[in-house]
Amino acid sequence: MEYALEYYYQKPLKECQLAEVIEGIVINARMSHWFDTVDYTDDGDYYTLKITHRLGVNATNLIRTMIESASATYGVRAESTTSGKTVFMKIFKKN
Fold it and tell me: Pairing between strand 86-92 and 46-52?
């Protein structure tokens, strides 16, 4: 995910704004056509990323890991709630 974001924005991840990182995750996820829905909301202290799919629990774990890795590389905390077909992630604006 980090590479995809850096390629998309043509700059290092650390030079991006958090809003760009979130938008980039959503754009790349939509372009992959893996998911039924991908969206996010700005909820004040954090962004909520919402992803639904029909790929099963292993895909859910992969999605969660990719986004948590990108968040950690960027330097913000992420918390996830998942099921076999959904991923809800809070990505906090400050650690």
Answer: antiparallel
